Amino acid sequence: MQFSVTANRPFLKLLSFRICITLAYQIIAVVVGWHIYELTHDPLSLGLIGLAEVIPYFLCAPFAGHAIDHYSRRMFGVLASLLLASNAFTLTIVSGGWIVSGKPTIWLYSAVAVGGIARAFIAPSYSSLFALILPRSAYARAAGIGTSVFQLGLVLGPALGGLMVAWAGKTITYGTASVLSLFAAAALLSMHVKEPRAAQNSPSVFKSIGEGLQFVFGNQLILGAQTLDMFAVLFGGAVSMLPAFISDVFHYGPEALGFLRAAPAIGALLTGVVLARRPINLHGGRWLLGAVAGFGICMISFALSANIWVAAILLLLSGVCDGVSVVMRTTIIQLSTPDVMRGRVSAINGIFIGSSNELGAFESGIAARLMGLVPSVIFGGIMTLSVVAATARLAPKLRRLDLQQLH
């Protein structure tokens, strides 16, 4: 059955929430990265941004999944948006010089940590609400639409962040992110959705988290897809090092940072649009493995490029590969997960995927310090290809998967 977005107002509200919160988060990420590198001129300081976020995210995500499965999916998304808004407002104050005590970098890293707490609730809220307002037959198509909206935020967020820093300054840019977070909260507050009643005799928090972990680790499809993406992002991502590439290799300013940050998302956005119209059902596992391998090849090629336009094209192609990977992984998880576990599975997926972004940033910072900037990215791409080969061998169900089997 063909799914019409315009016929489903709750889905439109959910998409509005996703685009606003993604824009806010991406703007903050771009500005904080530039802000810290401007203060330190040290690639390792960029890696520490990821570590500052991943620790609170990792600690909060399992509890976020439990809370969303047993209480209000919508209200936790609202609270996370408000927390991100207050966080961006704090960065506005710091950037404006209205807080003079302590080093600016301490405030910046602290704000990143608070953002990690907020983000722990955002993805499980979205995933759980997605399943509540859509029929199963629409999941693959709607996943493509949702991915397109998400990637649109990844395109516009870095571009807006970079341009606004260059033209209006960091303070106004942080303030804009705060306002966008408030819009995200308003979108969810205005959504009409019937949520299941909270269970009267729900299991203890740790038992509930254990049930989610047991389900994920007992499902080869979900575990294989999550592990593949986690290690690919952990080793293969070069985005966290872009401020160093822009400053030291290509010799451009913050507007170029926004441009290159947006390039992968443009590729993923185009891919999401295509997959929303023509969902992949046959040979889904092979498509997933091939897309991650293509991502690794793009990262190696990017590291070897000396021209900013060639680098942008390679990053765009990496986004195409990543877009296929995201849509396939999202669809596999949505179709394979029972409704009562969506929050916990999404939270665990966030630990696999979300935390790997930040740990990958930290790994990239350490590798750049030890090997040098360019060799570290080449090493990461080679490791990504190794992970694809290992997953293809160790997860045969994933390799042979057709999505039609899950409907």
Structure description:
The protein is mostly helical and 407 residues long. The chain has helices at 9-40, 43-70, 73-95, 104-133, 139-167, 170-189, 205-217, 220-236, 242-250, 254-277, 284-304, 308-336, 342-371, 373-394, 396-399. The chain has a single domain, classed as MFS general substrate transporter like domains (Growth Hormone, Chain: A, Up-down Bundle). Helix content is 81%, strand content 0%. Helix 5 (139-167) runs antiparallel to helix 10 (254-277). It is globular and about 50 Å long. The model has no long low-confidence stretch (mean pLDDT 79).
Q: Structural class given helices, strands, pairing?
A: mainly alpha
CATH superfamily: MFS general substrate transporter like domains
Tell me the overall shape: globular
The third-level CATH topology is Growth Hormone, Chain: A
List the secondary-structure elements in sequence, H or E: HHHHHHHHHHHHHHH
Number of domains as seen in the coordinates: 1
Under CATH at level 1, the class stands as: Mainly Alpha
**Rg from Cα:** 20 Å
* Biggest sheet features: none
E-strand count: 0
**Which percent bin holds the helix content?**
over 70%
| Average residue-wise pLDDT | 79
CATH architectural name:
Up-down Bundle
Discrete helix count: 15
The N- and C-terminal alpha carbons lie at a distance of 12 Å
% residues in beta strands: under 5%
Low-confidence sequence ranges = none
Give the tags:
407 residues, mainly alpha, Growth Hormone, Chain: A, 15 helices, 81% helix
